[in-house]
């Protein structure tokens, strides 16, 4: 997603010349279909379509390759220099790249779709790849299934058939009957509930991935935009305004205010919203008490709460300090949102029952968080 931001930024400089999209791979490939590169007039570019091995060759030849219009070029990354399409870089695969002039309506349409995705508007792009006797054609499907754009010359039957195929497919970034179908997703949204110093590296790492980051805290002296310049928004929350209610099922949320009362209130507010990821920072005993109190507030079982909470937050990567913790948190959020989470350190109902039965949970909690003081 960070690459998309860079591509859109270069596009707005009105210097773009060629747009490159990885549309097909065979064997091993550093990037997946859907990877992009936008080339500028002076050889500058945004995005990547390999691990760095193809970019120089593509940038050098892209201009004259598209003189007659969009083309699909095949590159081999095998070691074998005697291959039919030798480009022996050792990655062990073959990639097909779609190169198209940046000044065409079709290219402007997909770049506009990328820009729209950054603003929260998902789209599906259908590209009829160029072949002998027919140039590139493209259609853009909005999230509601309506066509936001269609190339001149596409028939009604072609559009209807392509839309049905695109909406029925469970996979995207794929080629089907010479139509490249891809979903332009919106940035991952991350809500950090807590504006302490340890939230800063979390914001920085999430921004590096191109995520949309919001920082929220009830303490106005901490929730200030100048403390989190890489966040898209920094909001002072309150029990009345409840800005956290904008959280959606695809969002990720991390509670890290270090204020027990704030965390309890926010945990009870966020749990019913069912975000994709909900992490709770803090010691296991503290988290056990928080989960049990949130369950009581909501009238849920402890087991229902545990199923929806990652606590302790973050993958067990080792290390110490805010940056190491931030890395563990971001890694777990990324894994969860991409459906790749394996073993985690999540609390179980048995853990909570054991901690509460020990009867000394309270001594691990501050009576009042120092940061809550004006």
TrEMBL record:
Species for this entry: Tunturiibacter psychrotolerans
Domain XdhC Rossmann residue range list: 190-333
Span of the signal peptide: none
PANTHER family: ALDEHYDE OXIDOREDUCTASE MOLYBDENUM COFACTOR ASSEMBLY PROTEIN (PTHR30388), XANTHINE DEHYDROGENASE SUBUNIT A-RELATED (PTHR30388:SF6)
Pfam families from the UniProt entry: XdhC_C, XdhC_CoxI
Protein name as it appears in the record: XdhC family protein
Record-annotated XdhC- CoxI domain positions: 10-75
């Amino acid at each position: 997603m960070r690459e998309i931001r860079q591509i859109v930024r270069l596009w707005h400089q009105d210097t773009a010349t060629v747009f490159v999209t990885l549309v097909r791979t065979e064997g091993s490939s550093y990037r997946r279909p859907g990877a992009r590169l936008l080339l500028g007039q002076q050889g500058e570019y945004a995005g990547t379509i390999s691990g760095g091995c193809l970019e120089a060759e593509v940038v050098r030849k892209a201009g004259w390759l598209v003189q007659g219009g969009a083309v699909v070029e095949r590159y081999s990354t095998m070691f074998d220099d005697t291959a039919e399409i030798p480009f022996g870089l050792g990655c062990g695969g073959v990639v097909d790249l779609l190169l198209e002039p940046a000044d065409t309506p079709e290219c402007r349409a997909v770049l506009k779709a990328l820009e729209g995705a950054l603003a929260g508007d998902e789209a599906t792009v259908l590209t009829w790849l160029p072949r002998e006797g027919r140039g590139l054609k493209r259609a853009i499907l909005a999230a509601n299934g309506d066509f936001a754009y269609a190339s001149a010359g596409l028939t009604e039957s072609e559009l209807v058939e392509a839309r049905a195929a695109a909406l029925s497919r469970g996979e995207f970034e794929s080629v089907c009957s010479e139509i490249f179908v891809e979903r332009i997703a919106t940035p991952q949204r991350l809500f950090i509930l807590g504006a302490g110093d340890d939230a800063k590296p979390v914001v920085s790492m999430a921004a590096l991935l191109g995520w949309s980051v919001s920082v929220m805290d009830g303490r106005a002296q901490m929730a200030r935009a100048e403390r989190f310049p890489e966040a898209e928004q920094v909001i002072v929350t309150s029990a009345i305004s409840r800005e956290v209610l904008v959280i959606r099922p695809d969002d990720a949320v991390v509670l890290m205010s270090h204020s027990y009362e704030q965390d309890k209130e926010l945990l009870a507010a966020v749990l019913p919203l069912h975000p994709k990821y909900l992490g709770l920072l803090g010691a296991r005993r503290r988290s056990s008490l928080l989960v049990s109190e949130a369950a009581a507030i909501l009238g849920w079982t402890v087991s229902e709460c545990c199923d929806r909470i990652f606590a302790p937050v973050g993958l067990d990567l080792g290390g110490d300090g805010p940056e190491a913790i931030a890395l563990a948190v971001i890694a777990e959020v990324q894994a969860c949102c991409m459906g790749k989470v394996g073993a985690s350190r999540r609390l179980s109902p048995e853990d909570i029952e054991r901690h509460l039965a020990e009867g000394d949970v309270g001594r691990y909690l501050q009576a009042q968080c120092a940061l809550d003081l004006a």
